[in-house]
Amino acid sequence: MSDEISEDDMIIEEDMEEEDEDEVFEEIVVNFWRTGFHDASFGIRQLDQYRARSRQWSAGMQVRGDVTFKEKKDKKYIIGFNEEAWEEDEDGRLAKKHGKFADLNSRVIIKLFSELKDNRGGNWAGSLELSILESLVLTIGERVGPLPVFYLILPRYPYIIRLIRSHTRMGQRYCFALIDHKEKDPVRIFEIEKKMVALGLDFRVEDSFTEKEVAKVDGKLLDIGGKWVIHIKDKALKNNRIFRQVVILFACLCKFIEDVNENIKNLHEQVVKKKYKFSPDYHERTMFLNPRVARRKA
User: Fold this and answer.
1) C-alpha distances out from residue 4 to 1, 39, 168, 231, 297, Å
2) Is the pLDDT of residue 248 over 80?
3) pTM of this prediction?
């Protein structure tokens, strides 16, 4: 992915990963902090400590919230968000480069890190990143939209996971596939569908083959920062680390998902009307590098 470092760094992070593959979780809370609480809780020194622990802590990354687990009180992730890639400042880097089209070039980049406590933790636990170009291609191809595309990568998982919004007449549906050669069924496809009748931003996760609800993501409407509670219902998925991390990253995305959809919709309209020519920046271009060619050169 464009915001990651190198293959060697990925291997280092995998070796440092502390999570037990057999841990079972049913309820997970994704909580975005209020701005004041965020500033008071994390100072420059703490950010420097996270940077020192993981090379996945890229430039522009700030702490925006945490992830807690009902079944294991001492386990926690912090949510890292790349502020520079999603800049809302009128005098910021995106505004200076793209002017009134700054929003059309805003990319969501979210990373999870284990909590740094007693000189332990601070390890990278997964990343989600929006591909503006892939989103534009899919939206143009389907002639409806917006249809954003996200890339997810996880420690000790060799595949890139693509989370894609699919074409629906009503509502929102996001799909992803998990590949696992160790299982009898090596491929499972899941759909994350927005609930039509709900007070908050709620989603149900369904196994595409069985049409069974395996998890749900419930938004808490009155929470100031943004809060989503994940309930994993499928017995076989309660200890599936890969599935769990994907759903957690999606819940983190929920805070920004409506803005992402609006940005992709506006970008599509501007491009089709020939009022704007989109050109992906260097970091997004690296998403499209041929991994086989890169590996041969190495």
Assistant:
1) 6, 26, 32, 30, 19
2) yes
3) 0.90
